[in-house]
Write a structure and sequence with these properties.
The chain is α+β, with helices and mostly antiparallel strands and 333 residues long. Helix content is 26%, strand content 20%. The strands form three sheets. Strands 1, 2, 3, 4, 5 and 6 form a six-stranded mixed sheet that branches. The protein is elongated.
């Protein structure tokens, strides 16, 4: 009779009701990568009359249910300045595009997910698995997306194919098509994924939800991508949107995709040249190599100094043409 007994109170008036805890646990099992903040936001929408616990209490409920794994401590790293994408305030002002890291599906074939997102609303516009990260299927998906959602003002990508190349101004066939449509181009610095941080963070969530483990084949994997995109856009609260969903903010662009791809248009004071099939710019009897990617395209030239011309493709500056040196001088991208 002298052994200490539990000092825990037999009744706690502010304890979370069992029914509430069970609903939160069930919601967490349905969305295993959502934290207390997102779970409480969704629960308040589904059951507005139900009293909900605090975030810390919800975290304790999930911990008791064995649904939380404590993160591994990491050594502190020095802070570095980052030139991240400047988040716009209106939809379609900036789209971000990238290929998420490839992985093999259950049939041992590669899957390269092409992802496109709206930077302002975080709306995931496209998530499509490809067998290879090549330009043709990517261009087809983007044209379909342009028809459905309209044209953005700018697209941000990294410096990899098929969005960029090692040629002059880093342009590829795909990015030339964007310029013809009047879309500006932004790029991350080489080897700096932090410049597109929100897109990379979305990739982390995509990998957790759809590729661990991967599906049996590309068709089954695409069904996972489609389900993830619907959930990400319509159900998952986003902290940067004050816990609203991307679908509540995104609206299609009023800039319609044209039936025919237009040629670049230049002001009246510009001179212009058609690039040869070998990629040469013919100028006063000289053949200056601009790049095979420009073969058959129309470029504009504006004189900016005596014997010095700026070479443009659409509104994008490519290089300087120096008549005295007889060569093209590439400008920094």
């Amino acid at each position: 009779g002298l052994i200490d007994r539990s000092h825990a109170p037999q009744h706690c008036p502010h304890r979370t009701p069992v029914e509430v805890a069970e609903r939160l646990v069930a919601l967490r099992r349905l969305h295993p990568f959502w934290g207390p903040r997102k779970l409480l936001r969704v629960a308040s929408r589904r059951w507005p009359a139900m009293p909900l616990p605090s975030r810390s209490a919800t975290a304790g409920i999930l911990r008791q249910a064995g649904l939380v794994v404590s993160p591994r401590r990491r050594a502190p790293t020095p802070e570095r300045a980052a030139q991240a994408v400047q988040t716009p305030t209106t939809p379609n002002a900036l789209w971000t595009i990238d290929f998420k890291g490839q992985f093999r599906t259950g049939d041992h074939r590669w899957c390269y997910p092409l992802t496109v997102a709206d930077a302002a609303s975080r709306y995931l516009l496209e998530c499509h698995g490809q067998l290879r990260p090549t330009a043709v299927p990517a261009a087809q998906r983007l044209r379909r997306l342009f028809r459905e959602q309209g044209l953005p003002e700018c697209i941000h990508s990294d410096n990899g194919a098929p969005f960029a190349s090692v040629g002059i101004a880093g342009l590829s066939r795909l990015s030339l098509e964007w310029l013809k449509l009047g879309i500006r181009i932004e790029r991350s610095r080489p080897a700096c994924p932090q410049d597109n941080a929100s897109h990379e963070r979305m990739h982390r969530t995509l990998k957790q939800a759809t590729a661990r483990p991967p599906a049996a084949n590309l068709t089954a994997q695409q069904r996972r991508f489609d389900h993830f995109r619907r959930e990400f856009n319509d159900e998952r609260p986003h902290e940067s949107l004050a816990d609203h969903t991307p679908a509540e903010f995104y609206r299609p662009s009023p800039r319609a995709y044209p039936e025919h791809l237009p040629e670049p248009h230049y002001p009246g004071h510009f001179d212009w040249r058609r690039i040869s099939h070998a990629g040469d710019l013919r100028w006063h009897g000289r053949h200056l190599f601009l790049g095979s990617v420009f073969a058959g395209e129309l470029v504009g030239l504006e004189e900016v100094d005596d014997g010095v011309w700026s070479v443009y493709f659409a509104h994008h500056l490519l290089a300087r043409l120096d008549e005295h040196l007889g060569r093209l001088i590439e400008v920094p991208v």
